[in-house]
């Protein structure tokens, strides 16, 4: 599983083996020239909610007076965050295209300099130009390179650059008509000053595409290409689980190149298959069969979590997904329970069962132990340990066990915690075996559709004949 994890990690961090797409840095040099992109929202597939949010920004820019009259503040900064290759640059360029703005496409690292003051000067020059050429969109990719949280052992040059960016953003006039779009894969690294109201105060997560979005992206990138009638983009979308928009654009391009090489007048399934292989091979020597197998395991793992969560019903599920996100190959999103401070023993036991259900589903279906449950087990260990040592919920009695007494009693603590976890695991296996039909149905649905809401889960389970 580690190899596969690495593979997925790698395909989320594309290596520069492909031809650069038209947007990438075509007009960006040391002195930050702008361009006037022709990109529109029609070029961006999927991401409907994000586009909706950006429509408002476009309207702000097109008719600022309407908003100013109402006393509404024009947004200054939008921050896109999420994995690479998912269309952040494309979206920013579409905002520029839709508003006929000058587009400044820069990267945070371009401002990182050895000599104090040089980065800050670059920021100043960039904003001067943007003001002159307004309306403007300034897109700063990898904004964490200049916007990372400041530490006590400060780096003077970096701090000055960040300060200059903050000064420029604060100095906007109402009628400047400049929007800054920052992009990062690591929102958690950014300095809080940058995220304050009036600066980058709109944060928009851009996710890896699910099956539907992959289909839409493939449609966009094959729009002007002669496809053989047998080419089934839905099937292609299915085969490309875990790929991002940049990979899919490359697949469409590579398939066209293969067709030219074959002197073919149309792009066929064969060319697409070769293109997929090449894109995968460019990343790592693997084939898509492995992805399919992996996808099946993750589907059952997440279906296990979801089903048991639905039965135990401690906090409602929002979404179940097998689209990789960060390091996770799949996830079940539950409503945050941060408002809760008190849990009963039954509820903690329920939490442990939900966490163990992924592993249990894998054991029932594949009869294997995999590495996919590492994070789950860590959380289980923490809860069981707290039950024994902090909440007096074991045979050791109503006492807290900490410090020296914890090391002194470590064997007993471990034995109690083990008993809790083992008991929960047995119960979870039993629950899932009793509901094996539901497990299959939910896992198959996840495998096909890749994401599922609570309503969909519940209607699927209810539909099943008793
Ligand atoms: N939603 C999408 N619709 C259409 N094409 C897409 C989409 N997402 C990505 N692409 C394609 O992938 C290319 C690269 O995407 P883009 O550079 O916008 O990603 P990014 O999120 O900015 O990545 P990075 O973080 O690596 O800079 C785009 O130029 C486009 O061809
Ligand atoms: Zn899990």
Automatic annotation (TrEMBL):
Enzyme class: hydrolase
SMART domains on file: AAA (SM00382)
Amino-acid positions noted as binding Zn(2+) in the UniProt annotation, renumbered to this chain: 301, 305, 376
Record domain AAA+ ATPase: where: 74-210
Cofactor, how bound (note): Binds 1 zinc ion per subunit.
Active site location: 302
Residue sites binding ATP per the record: 82-89
Function: Acts as a processive, ATP-dependent zinc metallopeptidase for both cytoplasmic and membrane proteins. Plays a role in the quality control of integral membrane proteins.
Identification of the protein by name: ATP-dependent zinc metalloprotease FtsH
Protein species of origin: Terrisporobacter mayombei
Lineage of the species this protein comes from: Bacteria, Bacillati, Bacillota, Clostridia, Peptostreptococcales
